[in-house]
Amino acid sequence: MLDFSYYNPVKLLYGKGKLDAVAEEILPYGKRVLFVFGQNHLKASGQYDRVKQLLEAAGIESIDLGGVHSNPRLDLVQRGIQICKEQDIDFILAVGGGSSCDTAKAISMGAKADYDIWQAYEDFHNLMHGNPLDNPHVPTEVVPMGVVMTKPATGSDFDYTSVLSNWDAHEKLMVINKVMYPKFSIHDPTLTYTLPREQIVYGVADIMTHYLEQYLTPDDYIDMLDRMKEVGLKTVIDSGVTVLKNPEDYNAQSNLLYCAALACSDISMQGTLGGWEAHMIEHELSAITDVNHGLGMAIVYIGWMKYVIDANPRKFAEFAEWVWGIERRRSDLEIGMAGIEKTAEFWRSLGIPLTLREAGLDPAIIPQVAKQAVRFGPLGRLKTLYEEDVIKILESVS
Question: Which domains does the chain have, with CATH numbers?
């Protein structure tokens, strides 16, 4: 296990009726709020009106910024930054899923920056890959923000990462910076009852890959952390199936929300560096095609697992045994492959396409995706991936 220090300042308010506390949590920061949300569901469900009423009752003025896309867009972030600067915004409230949260985080950084916020995303990737920069753009100050989560998926409400798409350039990058920690996150599982089936399905795949990216690594002797991830995976699998049968199962929805938050809270990644190379590949896939992130991750991850399993077959065999209950009566490689097939079988049972063609994507994009995925440098810890490796991974799921 690697040495680590752990700190997470996010205040988590969890349970029925916790939305009622949203104004109380905001007021210490001011009374002018930028309200960031998605496209249709929030208003159709009545949750938009409820949030507005709670803010108004507390004397909080809110300015709407709706239209958040499933792959958060730079142009909307730039509009939000402009509003913050022109309207003297005190606080940013994101209501929705991870995309609303990532959008709000980007705005919170950009509102205090005197440069194009996209430069911070580009510079972060250069620094992450060891590419020297004379004057990197690293945000040091933000407009405070908080979150009301209405969708279990990314866990962005409980971490300090923001992913953003520059649609004009067809690029998708991230920033990891502790100044972005939300001040609070409100989890009321009843707010998830009205989610469309597709969002739950892709959310389940997304949460699973967050645990798996931290689990299928070259790191050994992290038993406690591995057991946490395995329990997280099993809980997501079981709760996801239950929610799809009964969307108003409070306990199952609670488990999904909490598993999503914990998967990205860093607590399960302490003692290991994780991998995340499959995410880097999917980011470019969705930057070019706009495919849903959870769907894209399911496709890429099946291909990635099969491509890298030989680098640590024992870890894949443990995954098969502890998560899927497969007895280890054959070689680690064979058992590990059985675990991969079981994962694919589960995702297919939810209705998730597991090839590019099944998802309506043209395999002709593979060379472009591969080139962009490694433009800052090679990917991976379990197995170093170059452009030709990414091509082979994607061709295997074409």
Answer: 11-191 (3.40.50.1970), 197-395 (1.20.1090.10)
